[in-house]
Amino acid sequence: MAKLHFRYAAMNAGKSVALLQVGHNYESLGKQMLIVKPAVDSKGGDRVVSRLGVERPVDFLWADGEPLPVSEVKFDVILVDEAQFLSERQVNELLDVAVRVGITVIAYGLRTDFRGDSFPGAARLLCLAHEIEEIRTLCRCGSKATMNLRKIAGAPVFDGDQVAIDDGSVEYESVCAACHQRERVTAGASWD
After folding, report:
1. Which of 66, 82, 133, 134 is catalytic?
2. Is the dihedral of CA 50, 55, 59, 64 positive or negative?
C-alpha cells in the first residue's frame, strides 16, 4: 500500500533541498513523479527553490478546489513542497491519492508558524499521515530548533498575519522553544 508521508521542520532545515534530492533519486531510477506546491505560495513562482540555490520547476501549482492531475499519468510518487499552505481538503485528497489510487505522497513543510500556532495543512497532515518525520536543524544556542521566529527590521514580532511570503522586510530564524519564549518575554508578548 502506498502511504502519505509528512516531513516537517523549522525554517532553514533543508526541507526543499531534501525534496529535490528525493526527486532526483526517483528520476534517476526512471520513475514518474509529480512535484506540487500550493498556488498560494508565491515564493519562487512556479519553482521549488532551496536556500542552497538548488531549484527546479514545479509540475503542478495546486489551487484549492482543483483536483490533482493523477488520472493523466501513472505517477510513482507525488512530492509536495510548502505543504503547510495546503487546505484541509487538499490534505484529504493527498490521503485519498495514497490509499485509493496507490501513489506514494511525500509532503514537506512547517509544523507551526512564528507564533507557535498550527498551519491548517500541517495540522491535518499530522492527523492523517501514515509516517511523520522531523527534519532537524539547530537553534543559535545549539539546541534543536523547533520553532520559527519572525523578525521585522531585526526585531522579533509575535503578531500579524500567519502567512507573509515575499515580503522583503520580514526575516525568519529557526529557534528552540526556550529561545522563542525568551524573545517573547523580552518583547512583552503573551500567548493570548
Report:
1. 82
2. positive
Q: Which domain holds residue 111?
A: 4-134
Residue 82 a catalytic site member: yes
C-alpha–C-alpha distance, residues 184 and 182, integer Å: 5
Total domains in the chain come to 2
**Pairing relationship of beta strands 77-80 and 104-109 according to DSSP bridges:** parallel
Q: Which residue has the higher pLDDT, 21 or 161?
A: 21
Cell of 45: 513562482
DSSP 122: H
Average pLDDT over residues 171-180: 95
Among 107, 170, 171, 166, smallest CA distance to 133 is for: 107
Q: Are 121 and 165 found together in one domain?
A: no
Q: How many CA atoms lie within 13 A of 189 on its CB side?
A: 17
Q: What is the pTM of this model?
A: 0.92
- Give the CA count within 13 Å in the CB-facing half-sphere of 20: 16
94-149: pLDDT as tens digits: 999 999 999 999 999 999 999 999 999 999 999 999 999 999 999 999 999 999 99
